[in-house]
Write a structure and sequence with these properties.
- The complex is a heterodimer of chains A (about 1100) and B (about 350).
- Chain A is of the alpha+beta class.
- Among the domains of chain A are: about 85-155, no CATH class; about 180-305, Calcium-transporting ATPase, cytoplasmic transduction domain A, CATH 2.70.150; about 410-445 and about 700-745 and about 785-875, 3-Layer(aba) Sandwich (Rossmann fold); about 450-695, 3-Layer(aba) Sandwich (Calcium-transporting ATPase, cytoplasmic domain N).
- In chain A, about 40% of the residues lie in helices and about 20% in strands.
- In chain A, a hairpin with a 2-residue loop joins strand 4 (about 165-170) and strand 5 (about 170-175).
- The longest helix of chain A is centred in the C-terminal third of the chain and has 39 residues, at about 870-905.
- Chain B is about 30% helix and about 20% strand.
- Chain B contains ten helices and ten strands.
- In chain B, the strands form three sheets. In chain B, strands 1-10-4-7 form a four-stranded antiparallel sheet, covered by helices on one side. Chain B has a four-stranded antiparallel sheet with strand order 2-9-5-6, with no helix packed on it.
- Chain B starts with a helix and ends with a helix.
- Classes of the chains: A alpha+beta (about 1100), B alpha+beta (about 350).
- Chains A and B meet through helix 10, helix 30, helix 31 and helix 33 of A and helix 3, helix 4, helix 7, strand 7 and helix 10 of B.
């Protein structure tokens, strides 16, 4: 279970702001609240701009120009050693540091200030321990929690730092501990080892210095990725001897946190070689399927990308948190007012009575006003319990419990993938009960992200419907039998026998070219397991396409650094790969330039229809027919890709290749330079056809969406698909129904007119939105804001919104617009790296652990495996958490008002002298022992209705959205409830005690009896009140209520016993048997 | 079968009632058919208790004599501002037998024994008989810690210093002659005060313990001479001292002075005329305080107090009224549903 973890996946909840590539050109700065981690990198003037690493030369890195000031004049190499330190405290610093951190909280400071007030003898109305004991316990609990966390970190650090690795020292590989590795060292890593630092791959035991890595620790993705050494190092650095003489100088970027980017150059023997991410082995990955590899340490320890990624998190707070803080401020204001009033009362009383009462003479000659002033502080101390000290700790405990319940929920456990739901933060649970807007990704979130090649259009003719081998369309037909192809994947199903027959006859050149392209133009890795080919694809689409090509007879067999071998209808052929023009979300296409065995050079390209159609040659054929087919596919909610090719002459390629190499060596802005070069060659393309891939909806998606809609939650789907696909997906998952009217973003004018009409839906094409950088349309701030407001207002009037053709950045912008202008509680749910921005922007981010790796999960607050669990998370857990938290807070405020205000009433009868109505020890223990457990259990366990009913009646969710269970109204109700109860608790004993005697004739109206009676009745009232509020009576609740009362009496009898008085005559002064008083409520 | 599956994966959450939030629980549904009868029952019980308390309280006899003497016609008027020893007497008559045991209280009004600093102005260690604190009393006693010559005061503090020192005697006028009613001052203090909280230092004779200390400034006699008739009723465990030191919760209070349990008065005070003689020492005039003597007997519920009975009856009635209101509402809604 506890497999060795990399450090960035630290055991706490706050981790991994994964920096995205969208941070550079900000569409709208004030919108994007996402963390920009690059901005806060320390830049010092005296440092060289780049990291320089010299191989096998430890001394080089200690040179003065690589030093930085650490403290005063002590200088240290700016290259970090490889030892890591994730722990916060050590033995000496634990106490001061931890206390310092805890006292950053306002509440703790407040109680510390109180404690100081209590030490001043003139105003000390309560003994110091009444505040100190609760404060120490509260601080203690937090400190213990921190300590346990930190110990785990210590253990982890130690384990990691002491891992073994082979380092080249003095010409030999020697075993060394990870912590002793330094920048510039050459290391040898064996199969299944973790990579100790960010390392430049030099050579490996595989051909072409290929090296397979598993990046699960880094991004959670379990498919193997390959890294490649440079050709020059592959050729020249295989032996230990060669490696020992390796003396290249590497210049590369500063340490940063971008896992997807690396630029550098290697200077070796007078030549410069470009370095990129493909040459790098990142710390935290694991070597697979490669016996041995050699590498050069570039970044070590804290400079590694994985370490740079940890730690910084934007803190999300809930609405209730905010409200709670305001209420604490309100209480504080109230406290000051009441104290001031009582202080004034004291001044008047002193003038009237106090000054004349000879027996009260305290021998001090304070003026009346000064006495009032002292009394003010005295009352601040006495009434301090109005601000509940244990509130924050209790809230944390409850949230922790709620999170555990989410983790434990079997009905959110996906057994197929063995994934339980995971609550990755413990601070947001009650917010789950207040969601108003859900922003959902489509692919992988609503759909399974299991791609199936369904249809295609080749040279204007569509294939994929149920068709016999003679080309006759039928309603139903048996799937194609693939036995003729020994490489075929048996699971692949296809119903168009005509296409298969066509391909077997090898007559149709276009069809053959189509599948050849599919088998060549991709980045899939292949492995051989038990003679079967297993494809490792970075994206499921690619996997589906290559698998399709495999079944149709074009089998991708293997690849090396620059060749691809395929079997074309049984004949093996090897193509030389001249260039790979990679895919990214801006380019939306990938190309490959191949040299055929006969010497021809051809570019194959596949990509989204929009980008491909722009780049087609004017004399390409089938443009219109393909477009028609694409529209049909889109209506069937299929994902489409266009395929095309281009023949390149040798000289043309030569020229281009030169420019390509130059761009690769570019240190600054390499990406942009490459993009421009790619653009040069990817034009005048010839269209072959298009593929259509089906992505099935996940189970239960329509029901979930319908249920959430009934709960008053507005669902927006943000997808990169085109309009028709998006619309059809909308229908198929019941987001859109026939009753709705659809408005398209293009019909903006109509929308303005119909603004007031309800019940409608709009599809908006966000791609149309102008960016400030757009030179044709300079938009000023105000106009932009107007447009944003209009957009949000209109879109929010719709029942459902689908945004199509959105980029990851736009997704985040939509979320923050709604957050900003609607002040609504938002939830984003997604599964891929492209959803990370949106997940981090929303109030609550939910990650789906699906096919696309773990990046979304890593930046989410809650994670689970299936979209349909969302309704349980919100309607059951969210709702319960919200109701419980509200109930808890209402009661918590109430019980402290009821408790504290008795002092207030008593003041009128004791000359406003800040005499407490209870004994000191009762005040000390009230919040800790006598009244906390039952309400804590209500906060943890209470259920108004069970989970089934919550799901069946989604409208039960509405109170949470309106925030109607805890707001200022409820707060004041709690306040008045508290006032009322305190009135009764004080005045009934007052009436009963005023002029009476006990059964034995003694006058019982002494202070002690009075205090004990009020205290006891308070305990009864508070515990009975929580019993009335408890809707779900388990034996635990019962036990807690009775237990609290029992503890009260137990402690009271102890404190009042003769024995303890004998030991501490002046601490426990309430000695004596208290006669049972005959009154109750 | 399900169990096997569970064992397969450590990631699978436990299927227990607690983790799945399905703990067996009782979810009381407060329907009208439960609540209304409950309210009626509670109301009836409260009214019952209230009536019983009220009747018990009504039967208790109480005789209150204010002897502050602020009225020039009052016999104690002369003593009000007198600085010397002053005695005054009041007469009163009891129409029928005042059933025994009769308790004799003194009462003070507008007297803030519950003032915080006043209440804290004592030294519990000293009162516990710790001789160290005789020499060096706690500073909480200020300004009654030491006298002007810096000699420690025992018992220190404002509370002790202001001890009530009026004394009373009661006589029954029988055939024109005054017959003293014996007053029993034993066991009027709390048991724990007498046995636990307050202790004389174990020095004999007691007087030696107080060497080098002074009596409280307001006191005529030192603490070891409070009771001249009974040597054992001196020092910190003097009953009157204990009664005084147990401070009152409210500014109007009564404290037990004596019991009438002896001789002819075991069954109570017979009807007739009585004379109360007061040795008037304690000044209350300056702060508008009042002093009184209260004679009272008790019932099973304690002393005379109509408040509790009335409170019970009011709460009980409110319950009943609420139940009627709820019944009406319930009936209305029920019919509405039927429609």
């Amino acid at each position: 279970m506890s497999r060795p973890r990399a450090i960035a996946a630290a055991p706490n909840d706050e981790e991994m702001p994964y920096s995205d590539d969208e941070t550079d050109d900000e569409l709208d700065d004030e919108l994007d609240e996402g963390s920009e981690s690059e901005a806060d990198e320390p830049q010092e003037a005296d440092r060289p701009a780049e990291q320089q690493v010299k191989a096998n030369d430890r001394a080089y890195h200690q040179l003065p120009e690589f030093k930085k000031k650490v403290f005063l004049c002590i200088k240290k190499s700016r290259y970090s050693g490889n030892a890591i330190k994730t722990y916060k405290y050590n033995v000496i610093t634990f106490l001061p540091l931890n206390l310092y951190e805890q006292f950053k909280r306002v509440a703790n400071i407040y109680f510390l200030a109180l404690l100081i007030l209590q030490i001043i003898p003139d105003i000390s109305t309560l003994p110091w321990y009444t505040t100190l004991i609760p404060l120490v316990i509260v601080l203690g609990i937090t400190a213990i929690k921190d300590l346990v966390d930190d110990l785990a970190r210590h253990r982890m650090d130690k384990e990691v730092n002491n891992r073994k690795c082979e380092v080249l020292l003095d010409g030999r590989f020697k075993e060394s501990r990870w912590m002793d590795i330094q920048v510039g060292d050459v290391v040898r890593i064996k199969k299944n080892d973790f990579i100790p630092a960010d390392i430049l791959l030099l050579s490996s035991s595989e051909p072409n210095s290929l090296c397979y890595v598993e990046t699960a620790e880094l991004d959670g993705e379990t498919n193997l990725k390959f890294k490649m050494g440079l050709r020059v190092t592959d050729e020249r650095l295989q032996e230990e001897r060669e490696l020992a003489q390796f003396n290249a100088l590497i210049e590369c970027e500063e340490p940063n946190n971008r896992l997807d980017k690396f630029t550098g150059t290697m200077l070796w023997d007078g030549d410069r070689y470009p370095l990129e991410l493909d040459n790098m082995l990142l710390r935290g990955c694991k070597i697979r399927n490669t016996d041995v590899c050699h590498g050069l340490v570039i970044f070590a320890g804290a400079d590694t990308k994985i370490m740079r990624n940890g730690g910084k998190t934007r803190f999300k707070r809930t609405k209730i948190d905010e409200l709670m803080n305001y209420m604490v401020y309100t209480i504080f204001a109230l406290l000051i007012l009441v104290s001031a009033g009582l202080a004034i009362g004291h001044s008047f009383w002193y003038n009237d009575i106090g000054a004349n009462a000879w027996y009260l003479n305290d021998g001090k000659s304070h003026t009346t006003a000064y006495r009032g002033f002292l009394s003010f502080w005295g009352y601040i101390i006495v009434l301090n319990t109005m601000v509940p000290i244990s509130l924050y700790v209790s809230v944390e405990v409850i949230r922790l419990g709620q999170s555990k319940f989410i983790n434990w929920d079997l009905q959110m456990y996906y057994s197929e993938k063995d994934t339980p739901a995971k609550s990755r933060t413990t601070t947001l649970n009650e917010q789950l009960g207040q969601i108003q807007y859900i922003f959902s990704d489509k692919t992988g979130t609503l759909t399974q992200n299991i791609m199936q090649f369904k249809k295609c259009t080749i040279a204007g003719r569509s294939y994929g419907g149920p068709t016999t081998s003679e080309g006759v369309s039928l309603d139903k037909i048996k799937p194609v039998d693939w036995t003729w192809n020994r490489h075929a994947d048996r699971k692949f199903q296809f119903v168009d026998h005509f296409l298969v027959a066509n391909i077997k006859s090898k007559k149709d050149k276009d069809v053959l070219e189509f599948f050849k392209l599919l088998s060549l133009c991709h980045t899939v890795m292949v492995e051989s397991k038990d003679g079967e080919l297993v494809y490792q694809a970075a994206s499921p689409d690619e996997g589906a396409l290559v698998t399709a090509a495999r079944n149709f007879g074009f089998v991708f067999l293997s690849r090396t650094q620059d060749t691809i071998t395929v079997s074309e209808m049984g004949q093996e052929a090897t193509y030389e790969m001249l260039a790979l023009l990679d895919f990214n979300s801006d380019r939306k296409r990938m190309s490959i330039i191949l040299k055929f065995p006969d010497g021809r050079i051809r570019l194959y390209c596949k990509g989204a229809d929009t980008v491909i159609y722009e780049r087609l040659s004017p004399n390409t054929r089938h443009k219109e027919t393909t477009q028609t087919a694409l529209d049909i596919f889109a209506n069937e909610t299929l994902r489409t890709l266009c395929l095309c090719y281009k023949d390149i002459s040798a000289s043309e390629f030569e020229a281009w290749s030169r420019r390509h190499k130059e761009a690769q060596l570019n240190m600054v802005d390499r990406e942009a330079a490459l993009d421009r070069v790619y653009e040069d060659i990817e034009k005048d393309l010839m269209l072959i056809g298009a593929t259509a891939i089906e992505d099935k909806l996940q189970d239960g998606v329509p029901e979930t969406i319908a249920n959430l809609a009934k709960a008053g939650i507005k669902i927006w789907v943000l997808t990169g698909d085109k309009k028709e696909t998006a619309e059809n997906i909308g229908y198929s998952c019941q987001l859109l129904t026939d009753k709705m009217q659809i408005h398209y973003g293009e019909d903006n004018e109509i929308l303005y007119e119909k603004k007031k009409k309800r019940r409608r839906l709009r599809l908006r094409r966000l791609g149309r939105r102008q960016t400030p950088s757009n030179p044709q349309d300079p938009m000023n701030e105000q106009e932009k804001e107007m447009r944003q407001v209009d957009f949000v207002n209109m879109a929010c009037e719709c029942e459902a919104v689908i945004c199509c053709r959105v980029t990851p950045k736009q997704k985040a912008n939509v979320v923050s617009l709604v957050k900003k202008y609607k002040k609504a509680v938002t939830l984003s749910i997604g599964d891929g790296a492209n959803d990370v921005n949106m997940i981090k922007t929303a109030d609550i981010g939910v990650g789906i652990s699906g096919q696309e790796g773990m990046q979304a999960v890593m930046s989410s607050d809650y994670a689970f495996a299936q979209f349909c669990y969302l309704q349980r998370l919100l309607l059951v857990h969210g709702r319960w958490s919200y109701i419980r938290m509200c109930k808890f807070l209402r009661f918590f405020f109430f019980k402290n008002f009821a408790f504290t205000l008795v002092h207030f009433w008593y003041s009128f009868f004791n000359g406003y002298s800040s005499q407490t109505a209870y004994e000191d020890w009762f005040i000390t223990l009230y919040n800790l022992a006598y009244s906390s457990l039952p309400v804590l259990l209500v906060g943890l366990l209470d259920q108004d209705v069970n989970d089934d009913l919550s799901l069946k009646v989604p409208t039960l969710y509405l109170p949470g959205q309106q925030g109607s269970l805890f707001n200022y109204k409820n707060f004041f109700i709690s306040l008045f409830h508290g006032i009322f109860v305190s009135l009764i608790i004080f005045f009934i004993p007052y009436g009963a005690f005023l002029q009476t005697m006990g059964q034995d004739g003694e006058a019982p109206s002494d202070y002690q009896s009075f205090a004990v009676v009020t205290a006891s009745s308070l305990i009864f009232v508070v515990n009975l009140q929580i019993s009335l509020d408890t809707l779900y009576w388990t034996f635990v609740s019962c036990f807690a209520v009775l237990g609290s009362i029992a503890i009260y009496f137990g402690i009271m009898f102890d404190i009042h016993s003769a024995g303890i008085h004998v030991i501490f005559p002046s601490v426990f002064t309430f000695t004596g048997r208290v006669t049972a008083q005959h009154y109750c409520f | 079968m399900v169990k096997e599956e569970q064992e397969e994966s450590p990631n699978r959450p436990d299927n227990t009632a607690f983790t799945q939030q399905r703990l067996p629980a009782w979810q009381p549904i407060l329907s009208a058919s439960i609540v209304i009868p409950m309210f009626v029952l509670i109301g009836a019980a409260f009214i019952g208790v209230g009536v019983a308390l009220f009747i018990a309280s009504r039967d208790i006899q109480l005789q209150e004599l204010d002897y502050t003497g602020d009225d020039s016609a009052h016999p104690c008027y002369k003593c009000r501002s007198s600085t010397e020893k002053c005695t005054c007497s009041m007469t009163f008559s009891i129409p029928n037998l005042f059933k025994g045991p009769v308790f004799f209280y003194y009462g003070l009004t507008n007297y803030f024994q519950n003032q915080r600093k006043y209440g804290a102005s004592k030294d519990d260690n000293q009162l516990y008989g710790d001789l160290d604190y005789f020499k060096d009393p706690s500073s909480s006693c200020d300004p009654y810690t030491r006298d002007s010559r810096n000699i420690p005061i025992v018992p220190c503090g404002a509370l002790a210093n202001s001890m009530f020192n009026d004394t009373f005697s009661l006589s029954h006028v029988v055939n024109g002659t005054q017959k003293i009613v014996p007053l029993n001052g034993k066991g009027i203090a709390w048991w724990t005060d007498y046995n636990v909280k307050f202790r004389n230092p174990s020095v004999t004779p007691l007087i030696n313990a107080f060497n080098g200390t002074k009596k409280p400034t307001n006191w005529p006699k030192p603490i070891y001479e409070l009771d001249t008739t009974d040597v054992y009723n001196n020092g910190f465990i003097n009953q009157d001292f204990l009664v005084w030191m147990r401070r009152a919760a409210l500014p109007d209070f009564r404290k037990l002075y004596r019991r009438i349990t002896h001789d002819d008065y075991v069954n109570g005070l017979p009807a007739g005329n009585y004379t109360l003689t007061i040795e008037y020492n304690y000044p209350v005039y300056s702060f508008n305080g009042r002093k009184k003597v209260v004679l009272s007997n008790v019932s099973w519920m304690g002393g005379k107090n109509d408040f509790l009975g009335i409170a019970y009856i009011v709460v009980g009635s409110m319950c009943v009224v609420m139940s009627i209101v709820m019944l009406i509402v319930y009936a209305k809604f029920k019919f509405a549903e039927d429609d």
